[in-house]
Design brief:
The chain has 428 residues and is an alpha+beta fold. The protein contains 8 helices and 24 strands. The longest helix is centred in the N-terminal third of the chain and has 24 residues, at 48-71. The protein starts with a strand and ends in a 12-residue tail after the last strand.
């Protein structure tokens, strides 16, 4: 026990927290400085000199405490729960169903094979909003990886699209679409032929004759970056002028959601429906596919990710080595790598999130969910009006291109304090 005031104060255990040592030493310093036993609390504050000294000691303790917090932010951020990757999803054809994968390679555009093909009409990208049926189109890769197979339940014919990398020297110039309108920038793509165009025209019930399936052009012909306002926010937050390339994704390279945020939204949607006297019968909970993320993360509190600025993924991969001796032996070792993702901005949501991805129907219950509920607690202002944020965009670090991430990988929070240049703070 250490007697400081008329009552007893238990001395803190300093084994795990050096901040407590700082506070304790300051108290001892106060005692030594006055060269006598500290008086009672009442007498101390009657004495102006001791009051001044005590104030200085308390203030310095608080400042040192804060400095420790600042320089040990990463340790503090990651000591509560283990955050891990729960799912990795890629969407080979933009606007069509995604594919769950166990691991994925990082490229300069984001995840490998993510949004490499898309459907266009009159040289403009089209997606689920005008054609909700696209949400029911399934994509998968052949076992040998040589073909992308596109199918739809109830349709006998499947499409088989070659995944062989395009070679600009062998491409027919007449099939190159150089300026496809894709939101606020343009894309350069290669036409996938009449058979694919007719297949999608039938699925989409479009008789215009201008529907085409196209593929990203090779790197020497590709010149599309992430959206400008996201690029500007990255430059502000990280104080650099780096430009980030993008695939056919709308806005940015990678988007993630947390399981807890989806669960929280589902509870709020159910509450909204009850408060409005609406039936809950035959209205399934929202699945992650409504929001088309690349990563689902586990181990966070709801919307904890709002304040993150950069994160690190710890990937553990196995390497097998065979040694040729008189009796061949094989050993397996684990290789650990780290991958950094920089937070780029929040994901503003449009009516696509009201599409039931299994039925292929926009707003099937005519209640505008989940947008209706998101507007009650995820609303932001920007130069084009009010939006709702659900999901987080991020970009890969160029030094990590070629590395892999896997389901189960641990996520460490490196920095917090992200600020968007485009959106206001979320009003909750």
């Amino acid at each position: 026990m250490f007697r400081l005031f008329p009552f007893d104060v238990i001395v803190f255990s300093t084994d795990n927290d050096p901040r407590l040592v700082i506070i304790f030493l300051n108290i001892i310093g106060c005692y030594v400085l006055n060269k006598r036993k500290l008086p009672s609390l009442t007498k101390m504050f009657d004495n102006k000199y001791l009051f001044t000294i005590t104030s200085i000691i308390i203030t310095s303790s608080v400042l040192l405490y804060k400095l420790y917090d600042y320089f040990n932010e990463e340790k503090k951020l990651n000591k509560v729960n283990e955050i891990t990757i729960d799912k990795i999803i890629i969407y080979p054809v933009k606007a069509c169903k995604g594919i769950d994968v166990n691991k994925c390679k990082l490229t300069e555009y984001g995840f490998e094979n993510d949004r490499r093909w898309m459907i266009i009409k009159d040289n403009r990208y089209v997606g689920q909003k005008p054609y909700p049926v696209l949400s029911t189109v399934k994509t998968e890769f052949s076992e040998d990886g040589l073909f992308l197979i596109i199918s739809k339940q109830g349709i006998e014919k499947q499409l088989k699209i070659s995944t062989e990398p395009l070679n600009s020297n062998e491409m027919d110039p007449k099939l190159i679409h150089s300026n496809i309108s894709t939101l606020d920038n343009v894309s350069q793509c290669y036409d996938q032929g009449d058979e694919a165009a007719q297949w999608f025209s039938t699925i989409m019930n479009d008789t215009s004759g201008t529907i085409r399936l196209v593929q990203m052009c090779p790197p020497n012909l590709w010149n599309r970056n992430i959206r400008k306002h996201i690029g500007d926010t990255l430059k502000t937050n990280y104080n650099n002028q780096e430009e980030y390339k993008n695939s056919l994704s709308n806005s940015c390279q990678v988007m993630f959601l947390s399981k807890s945020s989806i669960d929280d939204l589902n509870k709020r949607v159910e509450k909204t429906r009850i408060e409005n006297g609406e039936s809950l019968t035959d209205k399934p909970k929202l699945n992650y596919d409504r929001f088309r993320p690349n990563l689902i993360i586990n181990g966070t509190s709801p919307f904890q990710e709002d304040d993150w600025k950069s994160i690190e993924i710890e990937n553990q991969s196995s390497s097998t080595t065979t040694t040729a001796t008189t009796s061949t032996s094989t050993s397996t070792s684990t290789i650990s790598t780290t991958i950094e993702l920089k937070i780029a901005d929040g994901n503003a949501r449009c009516p696509v999130v009201t599409i039931d991805q299994e039925m292929g129907i926009l707003d099937p219950y005519k209640d505008d969910e989940p947008l209706r509920t998101l507007k009650t607690f995820r609303k932001v202002d920007c130069v084009i009006g009010q939006k709702v944020i659900f999901g987080t965009y991020c970009v890969t670090n160029p030094k990590d291109i070629g590395k892999f991430i896997s389901v189960g990988d641990k996520i460490n929070i490196l920095q917090v304090g992200f600020n968007s240049d485009f959106y206001s703070k979320i009003s909750k």
